[in-house]
Structure formats: C-alpha cells, structure tokens
Amino acid sequence: MTSIEIVRATVLDPIVGELAPDRTVLIDGDRIVAVLGPDDAPPAGFTATNQIDAAGRVVSPGFIDAHVHLLGYESDLGVPGKESPLYVAARAADLMTAMLRRGFTTVRDVGGADHGLVRAVEEGYLLGPRIFHGGPALSQTGGHGDFRSGGEVCAHQMSTVLPTIGLVCDGVPAVRQAVRNEIRRGARHIKLMLGGGIASPTDRIDSSQFSDEEIRAAVEEADNANIYVTGHAYTPRSIARALALGVRCIEHGTLMDDETARIFVKHNAFLVPTLAIGALLASEESTQFGVPEESRRKASQIRAAGTEMLRIARAHGVQTVFGTDFIGPMHQFQSREFAIRAEVLSALEILQSATVTAAKLLGQEEQLGRVANGYLADVLILNVDPLSDISALAEPERAIGTVISRGCVVQR
Ligand code: ZN
Ligand code: ZN
Asked: Quick one: CATH architecture of 63-334?
C-alpha cells in the first residue's frame, strides 16, 4: 500500500466554498487519513512513501459525472449492441482513462456499463473512475433505448447478456424481469427511458414512454432491493408522472417548468441536467462527428430551454447534479459542462453539483465529494482556482494537474 503526503496544499471545501491554505493532506491506502493545519502533528506511525508539493495549486475532491455512457464510443448508440463485447470493453477502457484524466474520479453510468466492466476497474485490470452502474437503460419498444431504425426488425436489443446501452422490455412482467436481472448483476440504480430523446431514431421528444404500471413495477422492484430508479425525461408531463410514481432522479429535465420544479422539491428528487452535449449537437460543429441530421434537428428544438431550466431549478432549490452525456468522439468536450452552467450558476454551485450533491445522489456523502478525514482518496491538484474561474475547468489539459484515484497517482 502506498501512502502519500500532499504538502503546502490549499484545500477546497465545496460545502462552504472556501480555500484552506497551508494544509497537509495525508493519504494511506485508498483513504484520506488526515488534513492537517500548520500546527497539527501527523497521526502516530504515519510515514509517507510519496510526497507531492501542491504549492500555488488547489487541492480539490475528484469530480463526479453523474451521467455518462461508458460504452458510448460511437455517436450511434446502437453500435455497441452489434459488436463483440470484447471490442466494446476495449473502447470503454479508452473512454474511462480519458475521463479520469479530465478529473472525473467517479462516474454514474446511466446506460451500458455492466458488472464485468465495474469489476475489471475495481480489481485494477483497467484504469478508470469509480463506476456506479445500472446495466442497460430499460426502454419500451420504439422508445429512447430502442436504437433500431424503423426498417430494422432484428431483436439484438432484447439481449440480456450482451452489453448494450438500451434494453427493450414491454409489459409489467418483462419490466420486472429486466429490473431483477440488473439487480442480480449488481446494479446501483435502474434507468428507465421515460420519454423521447435526441439519439433515438424513431421517437419524438414530446412522447411519454412506459405505462404507469410498468414504471410502478420498476420502482417497486428497485425499492425492494434498496436501490432507486432514475428516468430520462424532458417534458413536464413525463417528469411529473415519473416523480409521482416514485422515480427519484430525472436525467436532462430540459423542458421543466415552475410547476414541475415544485414537484421535484416536494419529492426531494434530484435533477441531472446535461446542457453542453445539447448545445454541441444543436451546433454546426456536430456535423463533423457523424451525428445524424435527425438528432441535430431534435437538439435544436430544445437548445434554448436548457439554460432556462437551470434558472428554474435554481430558483426553486431543486437538488441539481453534474452530468454530461457525451457520446462518440465528442467525449473530448466532456468538461464543457462546467463552462455552460456558469451562464446561470455560481462557481460554488457548479462545484457542489460535481462533488457533494452528486455524492448524495449516489448515497456516498460520507466518503465521496470532499477532501476530509476518512473520505476515499480521490483527489485532484488543480492548476487553477475553480472558485474564481470555474470555466477554466472546461480545458482539463490546462486545469487538471495531478489526479489521485483510489489513493494512486494516475496523472502527475
Ligand atoms: Zn437520456
Ligand atoms: Zn444519456
């Protein structure tokens, strides 16, 4: 086991939004064991095998991206379900390493990552962030997780074995079985596609998906296993219905209005906006990444609503979490989400969404999202002060210095 001493550290506390200068952060194995002030003595018996001088830089908790697709190496999300699982795993490994280097030491995969990928990272065979996975996103036929074109009939999407980003299931018994199957394989949450989306070829953004009975069945099964359901939804109709039926978290939420925001607060639910990918898909820039014209058209329809949603969520005090949802070669722009949120939110609010609030969504607030005694040793040493310039994080190659993941230095 390695032990690390970070000296001359200015430590960012995302709860109060303050920088504490002249600290020494001690890491033993995969835990932070002390954050010492200038006059504090180190715990007895601690000797560091590795010392890092953080003078002039900011020591931050690792960031959490609560909406990724680790199998989404192509802009067409239907591709992984047609490929060799071994090839898909190799591409996922590449995406994971890059995310870690951008400072995302934890990710929540909301469609795609399976128990095997999680295990390979946890056992150290692949380099990647901590993964909170839910298996494939469950979808009705013709819903947002059904990536077949209208003319395509093949049933590969029905596989419960091959890694796919979406899994089609219709009717209460099929939904129950799909949820139970993901729970069997260690899912930390269940993802439902509850309305139309941008990347799916055959649905409309304003459609609601799954019946009340199907949603209720998924919520009951998840609740029985002490995990939660999160739902992809854009419209007030889809969001309101989902929250009333016990869905605990909404992905995107782009067309949310004041009334929907009140329902969020009433149910103490979480919102995971994904603005940067929407802006990119709606722009000319996306044509070079093989994004189908239909997806670009859908993205343009809702582009303006994103910032307004953030404004509404903030005004009502909705618990808002950092998420990105990048796909294919556009993953390189994952960190743009920090900059686009700055149009509405303060630097501190954005940092909280990517640390303490995200940790709360994951049920990990006692051990993720802070640089504090007893927390897991996922630590960044930033070349910038994000409290004074949050947009600087949009350029990770400049902003992110050292990355420590699970107590190991993975980037100097
Ligand atoms: Zn989605
Ligand atoms: Zn997504």
From this structure: Alpha-Beta Barrel (3.20)
